[in-house]
Amino acid sequence: MTNTLPTDTEVAGMTPAASFLPRSALQTLLDLLLGQGYQVIGPRLDQGAIVYDSLERVEDLPAGWTEEQGPGLYRLQRRDDDALFGYAVGPHSWKRFLFPPQVNLMRSQQTDDGWRMSEVVQPVVRYAFLGVRACDLAAIAVQDRVFLQSGFVDKVYQQRREQALLIAINCTMAAATCFCTSMGSGPRCQQGYDLGLTELPSGFVVEVGSERGAALAANLPLEPLQDEQDQAAERARQRAVDDIGRRLDRDRVQTVLRERLQHPQWDAVAERCLSCANCTLVCPTCFCTSVDDVTNLTDQEVIRERRWDSCFNFDFSHISGGPVRDQTRSRYRQWLTHKLTTWVDQFGTSGCVGCGRCITWCPVGIDLTVEATLICQDQDADAETRS
Question: For residue 31, is it within any domain?
C-alpha cells in the first residue's frame, strides 16, 4: 500500500469559494457520513471534560459548554450561548484513533510442527473526525511525517490515516494555555482538511479542502455565502487570535535550547516534575511506544503487543546495565529538547504545535513555554555557553 494522502499543492489548487451550511442542516452532514460507513468521532461531554467519542446526533455535541484552562487547571463552564464548538481543546487528541494506545502486531501459535507466526490483521476503520482544530491538523501532519514519510511506514497508522475524513473547525476562542500562533500552527485552519467550518450562531461557513470534501459538500444543502456571513466569520476567527496571550520564541528555542544542557533550570523543573507522563499522553504528536510479548495461560500462544509508552518512564531508556536517564532532570530535558529542537533535525518540523495540553494536564502546572524561555533567555547562561 502506498501513501495516497493529498499534497498541499493538490488541495490548494482545488479549493472553491466558501458556502454556508445552516445549523439546522448539521444533522444532514452527520447522517451523510454515517450512511457512507464512517464512524463519526467528535466532541462530547464525559466525566467532566470535553472528549472525542462517537457521535450520531447533533444533540451529542457539547452545546453551550466551554472550558477554563490554565497550568494544572481544567474546568467546564457554561457559555452564554448554544455554540456547539465553543471550546478550545480537551484532554483527547485524534492521535488515539490514528495511532491507537494498544495494538496487537504479531501472533505466535504452537502447533504440532512447531511455532507458527502470523501478522495480526487489523480491522478496517473509517473515521470521520468532526471538529479538528488547526493545531491538531498540524499535529496530524507531524505524525504523517513520522509514520508515512520518514523512510519507515507504520501500517496501522497508514491504514487508519488513509481512510480518515477530516472536518476542521476554525477556533473562535482560545484557552489561556494556547500558543499556536508562536508555532505557526493556528488558530486558522489553512490546509490538511477535507472540509473546514467556521461556526456562527445561525450555521457554518464551509470551505472545501480536498476532492473527498468536495464530494461530501455536493450532497449537503449548502447556501451561497453572504458578505455579512463571511465578515462575521472573519471577526470570529480573529477573536481567537486576539485571545492568545502565551508566546514562545520558536526560532531562538530551536537554536539555543540544545546548547543549555547544563542550565540550572533543569534542576529547578525536576524538583516539581512528577515524571507522571501526563504531558506525553495528552500530546498530539508524542509517539513513544514499547513492545511486549504476552503469553496466554496455556503457553501455547504469544501476542506481540505495542502500547503507548513515555520517555518520562524510568525503564523507557533501559539498556544492558540499567536505564540511561535515571533522573527526572534528564528525562524532562530529553523530552523538551527533542520536542522543540532535535525533532526538527529528524523530521524537518517542530514536535510541538502549541495546543497547550501539556500545560493544562500537568498535575503541578509546569509550563513548557516558561521553562524553555527561562533556559533560552538567561544572560548568565549565554556567558557560560561562550566560555
Answer: yes
